[in-house]
Design a protein that fits this description.
- By secondary structure, the protein is an all-alpha fold.
- The protein has one domain.
- It has five helices and no strands.
- Helix 2 (about 35-60) packs across helix 3 and helix 2 (about 35-60) packs antiparallel against helix 5.
- The longest helix is centred in the middle third of the chain and has 30 residues, at about 95-125.
- InterPro entries: DUF4396 (IPR025509).
Length: about 170
C-alpha cells in the first residue's frame, strides 16, 4: 500500500530532519532513521539500475561492441529499469502515469544519473566492459565494483534529497 504522500506530491513538502523521517515508506515505521531510509531508497535504486546495466552489458559484450557503446547501452537500460522500479508500484497503487512520473522524476533522475556515472567509471577502470566474454572473471569483477561504486556515490546524494523532500521513498 502506498502512503498518501506518494499520490499527491505536496506543493511545499516539509524537509526530513536528520534522524526523523517525515516521508513514509510501506516497510519502515514512522520513526525510521534518515540513514535507514536512505539505505533502503539507495538499494531500491541500485536494484533497478543493476538489472538494466546487466542487460546493457550483456548485449554490448555479446555483440562485440566497444566499451563506450556497451556503457551507453548499460546507461540506457539502467535508466529504463531504474524508472520502471519506481513507476510500476505507483501505477499499481492507482496513480496515473502522469501522477507517478511527477512523484518520482526529479529524485530518480538525479539518483540514477549519479549511480550510472559511478558504476560505469568503476566498471571501465576494472576492465569489465573491455572483455570479449561475460565468462571472463574481469567482467564479474567490474560488475561487482560497479555495484559498490554506484551505491557509494548515490547514498549521500539520496540522503541529501530525502532530507529536503526532493526524493520521496514512495515505492
Amino acid at each position: 500500500m502506498t502512503h498518501d504522500c506518494c499520490k499527491t506530491p505536496p506543493e511545499h513538502a516539509e524537509p526530513i530532519k536528520a534522524g526523523h523521517a517525515h516521508a513514509h515508506h510501506a516497510h519502515d515505521s514512522h520513526n525510521a532513521s534518515l540513514g535507514r531510509l536512505t539505505t533502503s531508497a539507495t538499494l531500491h535504486c541500485l536494484t533497478g539500475c543493476a538489472i538494466g546495466d546487466f542487460v546493457g552489458l550483456a548485449i554490448g559484450i555479446s555483440l562485440g561492441l566497444g566499451p563506450w557503446a556497451t556503457m551507453a547501452l548499460a546507461v540506457a537500460f539502467g535508466f529504463v529499469s531504474g524508472f520502471a522500479f519506481s513507476l510500476v508500484p505507483l501505477l499499481r497503487s492507482g496513480l496515473s502515469l502522469a501522477q507517478a512520473w511527477r512523484a518520482i522524476w526529479l529524485g530518480e533522475t538525479i539518483s540514477i544519473a549519479i549511480m550510472e556515472l559511478a558504476m560505469n567509471v568503476a566498471d571501465y577502470h576494472v576492465g569489465g566492459v573491455q572483455v570479449a566474454s561475460m565468462l571472463h572473471a574481469r567482467f564479474w569483477l567490474g560488475y561487482g565494483a560497479a555495484l559498490v561504486a554506484g551505491f557509494a556515490a548515490a547514498w549521500p546524494v539520496n540522503r541529501w534529497m530525502l532530507a529536503r523532500a526532493i526524493k520521496k521513498p514512495c515505492h
